[in-house]
Amino acid sequence: MTELLQPNLSVRVGQILRGKYRVERVLGAGGMGAVVAATHLRLDRPVAIKLLRPALVGKPAIVARFAREARAAAKLKSDHVVRILDVDDDEGGEPFLVMELLQGHDLQRAIDDGPLNVARAVEYVLQACVAVAEAHAHGIVHRDLKPANLFLTTAPDGSAKIPSWVASSLWASKISSSVTATAAPLDSLSALRACQPRRGRPTLMDSATVAPGVSVSASSRPSSQARTRAAAAWA
């Protein structure tokens, strides 16, 4: 009998999902679920799989939102958005999302290690803005952008990527009221009224707009020229 990865997750080390994804280890966990490293057996390729906590699987509205927003995120093609590879249910009917497996660490860890080079910090923000701009064009507002949610890859170009969009919100015109009603447990910034979409459109000061600037402020002390360049990206 293989061991459970965590007491509050139903998958086990070595478990094979849908006959092709072998679960290896936990990469991270949060209030909604966890992300595990896995191997795509048919392609011999490492992937990351996001799972909902079992306690949430029995809530149809949350499961519907998870699947719907995963499909929406799969439309994003920016180099600064994690690739969505598959969405499925395991043999027990629990949904999971398959993504590319990133190598590196998040921006928060880099900040904790000390001030970033100003030019590099601004470049990370500009890359995040590219991803956010495409998402907004598809009617998706992230709602939880922060240094911990911007991943710095070890790719040769050292690019930054937004690794998850499952906490995001589709604009009111694109999502049913029953699903929208579940936003509170999915949105860590729900208390900030200015971050909420209004009349089917995002506000100019939603969290996806404000957060990149906050990330720069937290990571370095940019010059006025650097601040101007960063501000132009989302003006």
Properties at a glance:
Transferase(Phosphotransferase), domain 1; alpha+beta; 235 residues; Phosphorylase Kinase, domain 1; 2 domains
3D architecture notes:
It is a single chain. This protein is an alpha+beta fold and 235 residues long. The protein has 2 domains: 16-100, 2-Layer Sandwich (Phosphorylase Kinase, domain 1); 104-234, Transferase(Phosphotransferase), domain 1, CATH 1.10.510.10. The chain is built from 8 helices and 11 strands. A 6-stranded antiparallel sheet has the order 1-2-3-4-6-5. Helix 4 packs antiparallel against helix 7 and helix 4 (118-137) runs parallel beside helix 8. The radius of gyration is 18 Å and the shape is globular. It starts with 15 loop residues before the first strand and ends with a helix. The model is unreliable at 171-199, 201-210 and 226-235 (pLDDT under 50).
Describe the secondary-structure layout:
Blueprint lengths: L15 E2 L3 E9 L3 E8 L4 E8 L1 H4 L2 H14 L10 E6 L5 E6 L3 E3 H6 L5 H20 L2 E2 L9 E3 L6 E2 L7 E2 L6 H4 L2 H4 L20 H13 L4 H11 L1
Antiparallel strand pairs: 1-2, 2-3, 3-4, 4-6, 5-6, 7-9, 8-11, 9-10
Helix pairs in contact: 4-7, 4-8
